[in-house]
Amino acid sequence: MPIYEYRRPDGTTFELRQAFADESLTSDPETGVPVERVLHAPAVHFKGKGFYNTDYGTRNRQRESAAEKSSEAKAAAADSSSSSNGKTDKDAAKPKDTKKPVSAGS
After folding, report:
1. What is the pLDDT of residue 62?
2. Residue 96's Cα: distance from chain center in Å?
3. What DSSP assignment string belongs to 34-61?
4. Angle, vertex CA 29, rays to CA 23 and CA 33, nearest 5
5. DSSP string covering 24-37
6. Looking at per-residue confidence, does 88 or 30 come out higher?
7. pLDDT for 68-91, tens place per residue?
8. Which among 32, 40, 34, 43 is positioned nearest to 5, based on CA atoms?
9. What is the C-alpha separation between 33 and 9, in angstroms, rounded?
10. Fewer CB atoms near the end CB (10 Å): N or C, the chain?
């Protein structure tokens, strides 16, 4: 038999063991004050094909997002260090002048 939780108007709660076929309570059996059943979200865990790791609220997701952030930071640091040497991507794309200067005496 399941255990149901009920709330009194003053905010206090109590639990009562009831059968599925029993009606929910409308008043507290001890004091007679009106009560309402407290509903909780069920615990669901998806298993099988078609579900992704992101469907679960696990610590693995936190580790994955932290790893992505650190790899992005490393990539940004590498980009800034390559541009700090004075050459830009445009400079690297330009062909170098391979002609030797012609001397006036030859």
Report:
1. 64
2. 49
3. B-EEEP-PPP----STT--GGGS--HHH
4. 100
5. PPSB-TTT--B-EE
6. 30
7. 777 777 777 776 665 555 555 555
8. 40
9. 8
10. C
Question: 14: part of which helix (H) or strand (E)?
Answer: strand 13-17
Tokens 């992704």 locate to 52
**Pick from 8, 49, 11: nearest CA to 32:** 8
Q: Rounded to an integer, what distance in angstroms lies between the CA atom of residue 96 and that of residue 105? A: 26
> Taking Cα atoms as reference points, which of 42, 67, 46 lies closest to residue 57?
46
Per-residue pLDDT, 77: 74
Residue in the block written with tokens 């936190």: 62
Token reading at 100: 């030797």
78 by DSSP, 3-state: which?
Answer: helix
pLDDT at 26 > cutoff 60: yes
Residues near 51 by beta carbon (within 8 Å), at least 6 away in sequence: none
